[in-house]
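Quick one: structure for this chain?
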Amino acid sequence: MSISSEHKPKKSPPLIFVVDDNRELTEMAEMVLKAEGYRCQGFCDPKEVVEIFRSSDIRPDLLLTDYDMGSMNGLELIAHCRKASPKLKTLLLSGTIEEKTVLSQPVKVDEFLSKPYKPQQLMALVKSLLPD
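Got it. Here's what it folds into:
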């Protein structure tokens, strides 16, 4: 006897943390992701995200972060977050460094996207990291 698909509990959509010190870019990425059905939480201060990883059980399915954020760069943020969640999926965005520079760093990212980017480019990478 099998349970029909109608009675299976619905899985909640993946949660994505969007981190960029530029509020407009954070909000734009959130808008694109929410339109595709993802849950998002935006942050302009990477230190706030580190604190959530230290003090909370909330874990995103994907960390989408800018590289150049002043107080902490995106690779440093990824390193901090992976201490609490080693299998965390990551997508690094940057308008200031190139992919080859990112690939030579000790902190590894799952995907890299240069700014400015098109919403379709962002969604293609997110979908590759968070398959249904």
